[in-house]
Amino acid sequence: KAGVTQTPRYLIKTRGQQVTLSCSPISGHRSVSWYQQTPGQGLQFLFEYFSETQRNKGNFPGRFSGRQFSNSRSEMNVSTLELGDSALYLCASSLTTGDNYGYTFGSGTRLTVV
Amino acid sequence: GESVGLHLPTLSVQEGDNSIINCAYSNSASDYFIWYKQESGKGPQFIIDIRSNMDKRQGQRVTVLLNKTVKHLSLQIAATQPGDSAVYFCAETGYQKVTFGIGTKLQVIP
After folding, report:
1. Interface contacts (A, B; CB < 8 Å)
2. In this predicted model, what pLDDT tens digit does every residue of A72-90 receive, in sequence order?
3. Average model confidence (pLDDT) for chain B?
4. Beta bridge partners of residue B89, listed in sequence order
5. Residue B26, CB half-sphere, CA atoms under 13 Å: how many?
6. Do B98 and A101 touch (CB under 8 A)?
7. Closest partner residue to B42 among A35, A56, A107, by Cβ?
8. 3-state secondary structure of B5
9. What is the DSSP track for chain A?
10. Residue A99 has what pLDDT?
11. Do B100 and A42 touch (CB under 8 A)?
């Protein structure tokens, strides 16, 4: 079966712009979580969506937002980009919230802010 | 707060030797643990998992050991190969929460 699909793979944006990233979970998975990964910081949790509702949120500013559609696909948006937003953005899907068995990552979107 | 940490940020191993990557966790309520491998430019890839009611689980060339008494998790890779070079993460999961360690970089010396 297809894995978690993230698009685009690479993005270059300038400061002040906004960006939207997409994540399609494994078929049947209804929970999607987003992470930011930077060198030395590891995986920082952004938020989790389940049944089109945000279930959990990490400690990121309001510039970071997301949503989930009825087919479980999710998008995250970053507005007013800053240089420090340059990172690998990963999404992970699992069957349901509250049970992380089968937690599977996508390949990520590499965002570079210049 | 709760955290998952790794004892060694970088591990260099001779090809053919066994590798052991360690992880300490702090949440005694965590009931499921996962090891991931992340190669350069790729997302983390599931390697092996273990539930808290087990203390050992074996896969192909990999073994995960769980010691709940000291909240310690380890990943053993047998006969390490150049293709094993990557960053390895442990993750602990509980209800509605997954916590990752920073990662250990495994370097395999040919």
Report:
1. 48
2. 999 999 999 999 999 999 9
3. 88
4. B36
5. 9
6. no
7. A107
8. strand
9. ----EEE-SEEEE-TT--EEEEEEPPTT--EEEEEEEETTTEEEEEEEEETTEEEEE-S--TTEEEEE-TTS-EEEEE-S--GGG-EEEEEEEESBTTB-TT-EE---EEEEE-
10. 63
11. yes
Question: Would you call B22 helix, strand, or coil by DSSP?
Answer: strand
Residue located via tokens 């400690």: A59
DSSP code, position B21: E
CB contacts of A105 in chain B (<8 Å) are 36, 43-46
* Cβ–Cβ under 8 Å, residues B91 and B98: yes
Q: In whole angstroms, how far apart are CA B76 and each of B7, B20, B72?
A: 14, 5, 13
Q: Which residue, among B87, B93, B99, B105, would best test binding to A if mutated, counting the most A CBs under 10 Å from its CB?
A: B93
Inter-chain CB proximity B49 and A105 less than 8 Å? no
Q: What DSSP string runs through B35-84? A: EEEE-TTS--EEEEEEETT-SEEE-SSEEEEEETTTTEEEEEESS--GGG
- Residue A67, token pair as written in the block: 């949503």
Could you say which residues of chain B have pLDDT below 70?
A: 1-8, 95-96
pLDDT digits (tens, 9 = 90+) for A4-32: 999 999 999 999 999 999 999 999 999 99
What count of other Cβ atoms lies within 10 Å of the Cβ of residue B19?
22
Q: Distance between CA B27 and CA A71 in Å, rounded?
A: 34
Q: Do B95 and A40 touch (CB under 8 A)?
A: no
